[in-house]
Amino acid sequence: MxxxxxxxxxxxxKKRKDSKMxxxxxxxxxxxxxxxxxxxRKRSDQILKHIITPAAKGCGYKTVRxxxxxxxxxxxxQVIQHIVDDPLVIADLTGRNPNVFYELAIRHAIKKPxxxxxxxxxxxxxxxxxxxxxxxxxxxxxSVEEAKEEITKQIKAAEKDAGEVDxxxxxxxxxxxxxxxxxxxxxxxxxxxxxxxxxxxxISSIEKRLSDPSMxxxxxxxxxxxxxxxxxxxxxxxxxxxxxxxxxxxxxxxxSKTLRAEDKEELRNMLGHMNRMASRSLKK
Length: 284
Description:
The chain folds into three domains: 25-162, Rossmann fold (3-Layer(aba) Sandwich), CATH 3.40.50; 166-211; 213-283. It is built from eleven helices and five strands; from the N terminus they run αβαβαβαββααααααα. It has helices at 2-18, 39-58, 77-85, 98-110, 141-160, 168-179, 184-211, 213-216, 219-229, 234-254, 261-283, and strands at residues 25-30, 61-65, 88-92, 114-119, 133-136. A five-stranded parallel β-sheet has the order 2-1-3-4-5. β3, α4 (98-110) and β4 form a beta-alpha-beta unit. α10 packs antiparallel against α11. The radius of gyration is 27 Å and the shape is extended. The N and C termini lie far apart (110 Å). The relative contact order is 0.07. The mean pLDDT is 76.
């Protein structure tokens, strides 16, 4: 009877061990940290707590940030070890912090999975503009949810394609080898890859402009138009008022996620009307 009870206990213990959740994989977070109580630290803590950690945890990763293993602002061998060894790195490019880009360059050089994020509204530095980046406004709950979903998608995509990751550094090194090749076809391939990389950066820039309609119609341009057709007479004051109303309406239409046929027609009509008003004003 005693042997049976022990056997039963051992069996139950084995079942409990087998039912444990798989061990979480490490995910190193590269981020601007700042001094305690600073705005930079508060933002970094909120991004880590409410966006990066939940998204990573949902994919089986446990996050760790540099200040959790070393003094803030100091790049130690432990930090570099995490950057090199961890199966996943998530980097926050907000504020163009020098340490962030130093650590990011190390990760780029070893061609391992990486997710980039940045504060919504900030321009992505040119050198990394070709890499897909998650934009987030941590004060906007909808933006927070969208960022978590996008980070999750990128993590799963990286896991699905477990091969080496193309980065600006790795692409540059590969191109250098191709250009130095004795094979004319490989040298031609280098030119083609270079052209594609430039095109990718150009597309990224266009996407950024489309995501911020005010960049499509800069305020400086609107002010210039108003000055050209403006004046003190009643008809020019009327032109100025109409142009401002149409400009606001154009930005509102462009801010919608999808443009219907009627929206495009409305935009064409407003642009045509603005041009006609400007022409009449210049003739007076």
